[in-house]
Amino acid sequence: MPATTEISRRFRTRSFLWVVLCWGLGSSAQQAVTGGPAQSSASDSKIEELQRTVSELQAQLAELKTQMTTMAASMAAAKAGSAQSSSLPSHTVADIEMPGGGTTEAAAQEQGQPPASNSLVLTQEDRGILDYLKGATTNVMVDAYYSYNFNDPVGRVNVLRAYDVSSNAVSLNQAVVMFERAADPTADRRWGTRLDLQFGQATATLQGSPSNEHRPDIYRNIFQAYGTYVFPVGNGLNVDFGKWASSLGYEGNYTKDQMNYSRAYWFNFLPFYHMGFRVKYQVNNKFGLNYWLVNGTNQTEPNNGFKDEMFGFVLTPNKQVAWTMNYYFGQENPDATSTTDCPPVPVQPGLCFAPLTPTPQGKLHIFDSYVNWQATPKWTFALEGDYVVERMWATSGPGRNSAPAHTWGGAGYIEYQLSPKTYLAGRTEYLSDNGSFFTAGLFSKVTEALKEFTVTYTYNVADGLQLKTEYRYDWSNQPVFLTNQKDVFSKDQSTATLGMIWWFGRKQGAW
User: Fold this and answer.
1) 190 burial type by CB count under 10 A (0-12 exposed, 13-18 middle, 19+ buried)
2) Is the bond preceding residue 358 a cis peptide, omega within 30 degrees?
3) Residue 276: beta bridge partners?
4) CB contact at 8 A, 194 and 178
5) Domain count, the chain
6) Which of 125, 185, 187, 370 has its CA 20 to 30 A from that of 423?
C-alpha cells in the first residue's frame, strides 16, 4: 500500500517539525524574558513567525489525518466485499497503525464501515474435514511404452520380461490409482490405510495365476490393500495387515522410482506380493528389524495350510548407505487340487477341492540382500545378491524326486545425474537357473546362465512427467529367446524402448 506508506511518512515528518518548532518557540520565549529591550523586540518578531508556521503545520497535519481516515475506510470496504466473494483468507488493513495512535480498522469504524477480518470462521465439522484431508493423498499414475525387439519375435513377445512384454506395439504398462492416509503418531494418529488399484499389462505379470492361487481374478486389480497401526512400544512398533508389494529384491513396481524402465530377471523371479502380517521395529536411527507372517509367495488366498515367514533387517550406518538383508522361509506347493466333483462338504464359494495324496511338503528358502550407496550427490551405486532353493518333496520315496531346484546370482546398478532433470543409468546381472527354476513353463528343463545389460536415459520433463529411453541386450548359453520363425530360438535378443510416465498427487517421494 504505497499511498498509505507515503502519507504516514509525511505525517511523521511534519510531526517532527512541529516538535522542533515548539522547542524553538519555547527557547525564544525564554530569551525574551531574560534579554534586554532590543532582544525582546527581535524575539517578538520571531515568535510571531513561529506561531504562523505552527498554525500552517497544524492545518497540514489535520488534512493528512483526514486523508488517512478516508483511505482506511475505503480499504476496509474493499476488503469486506472481497471476503464475501472468496473463501481464501487474505491480508487486511486492520493491523496498520496510524500516526498519533489508533488503527485503520478503528478509523474505518468511525466512518461507519464494517470491520475487516484476517481469518475465516470454521465450524468444527469444517476443521475435521480439513484435518482429514491434510493427512490423506489421492494419486494417479499412467505408465505406457513402445518397445521394439530386433529379433522380430513371433507373436511380438519379449520373453523373460516382467513388464515390457510386447514388441512393436504401443502398450499400456500400468494405470494406477493410489489412496493413502499414513499413520502419524506425532499427530496422535496411530492408524493408517493404503489402497493401490492397478490396471494394464503389469497386472497379468504381478497378480498371480490359477497355478499359484485358486481365484486370482478376485484380487487381480488390487495391487496393495492394507491397514497400519503403530503400537506405542519403544520407538514405535509398526504393524501392517493386508496385501502389500514384496520388498524382496532391489527393484520395485513403480517405474518412475526406478533407475531403468525394464525390470531385472530377479524382479521377475522373486515374489511380487504377500498377504498377511508385516511388522517393523526401528531399534534406532541406524538399525531396523522386519518380520512377516504370510499366506505364501504371490498368494492372496493360500494354496496350503502352511504360513510363510520372513526375517530381515535394514542397516543404515550413515545417510549415504542402506543395506537390506532378508531370509524367507515357506512352503509353496498346494495340498489340494480343484475338481468338478464336489463332495457334500463346505468349500469356498464356487470352488471344489480334492486333497493331494501324498502332499508335497518341500520347503522354499530365499536369501536376498541388497545395498544402496549414494556416493556423491550425482553418483548412485547399488548391488544385489540372491540365492533361492526349493524342493517339491520333503523326503524321498516312490514317485518323489526330492532333488532341489536352485537359482543364484545378482545384479549391479549405477546411476549418474547429468543435470537437474536428466539421468544416465546402467544395469548388469547374472542369473544361474538350474533345472529351469526361473524359466519353468516356458522351456524344457535345462540349466542355463542368463545375462543382460541395460542402459537407460531418463528425462524428467516436469514434476509429474518422465521419459525413459532404453537399450537392453539379453543373452544366454542356451537358445531361449524367440525369433521370427516358429520353434526356432536364439541365444540373445536386443530391445529398444521408449517409456512415458505421467503422475500426480500429494504423495511425496517414492510410491
Assistant:
1) middle
2) yes
3) 242, 294
4) yes
5) 2
6) 370
